[in-house]
Design goal:
- By secondary structure, this protein is mainly alpha-helical.
- It contains five helices and no strands.
- It has helices spanning about 25, 35-60, 75-95, 100-125, 135-170.
- Helix 2 (about 35-60) runs antiparallel to helix 3 and helix 3 (about 75-95) runs antiparallel to helix 4 (about 100-125).
- The protein is globular and about 55 Å long.
Length: about 170
């Protein structure tokens, strides 16, 4: 046993004891975002979903079929429809062409109109649950509050992205 190399200190790793195997797969760069085809497919799906929601909300019986919505929905229906239309138009435009500046501009627009819709929903609160202090009512308020806060952050982030994209573009 005299020919054996000395033991390394506890927890220490000796480089000659570690075999590192590299393959072609290890050297490929990892992609964290969808490629152009994936982005376009997602945007086409988003535009289609917005169009379907517009039809479902506005065609009879539409929103009246939802048991916990009140007639006060008519006060916010315009801004909710605007949010769906803006989302559909922006996604359809980005299917055709998606430079970074247009993507960021679309995010500013859709998130801003979505924020307006969420704020209107918070103010009007066209929801009626069995009890005003019921869990669904509380959860609805929390979801609206979270959506409003997230949208404010989203608009700021999208504006920074737009500024950076325009600086690189010019």
């Amino acid at each position: 046993m005299e020919d054996a190399p000395p033991r390394a200190a506890r927890g220490a790793i000796r480089t000659e004891e570690v075999a590192i195997a590299t393959t072609a797969a290890d050297r490929r760069p990892t992609r964290t975002v969808a490629g152009p085809v994936g982005r376009r497919a997602g945007r086409a799906l988003g535009a289609a979903a917005s169009a379907v929601l517009l039809v479902l909300v506005n065609d009879p019986p539409g929103w009246r079929a939802v048991p916990f919505l009140t007639e006060d929905v008519t006060a916010v229906l315009g801004i909710v429809n605007a949010s769906l239309v803006v989302g559909a138009v922006v996604n359809a435009a980005l299917v055709v062409r998606d430079p970074p500046w247009l993507d960021a501009l679309g995010d500013v627009g859709t998130t801003s109109v979505g924020l307006a819709a969420l704020t209107a929903l918070w103010q009007v609160y066209p929801f009626a649950f069995a009890d005003a202090f019921a869990i669904p009512s509380l959860l609805t308020r929390w979801v609206l509050a979270f959506g409003i806060a997230a949208s404010v952050i989203g608009v700021i982030v999208a504006m920074v992205r737009l500024t950076n994209a325009l600086a690189r573009w010019s």
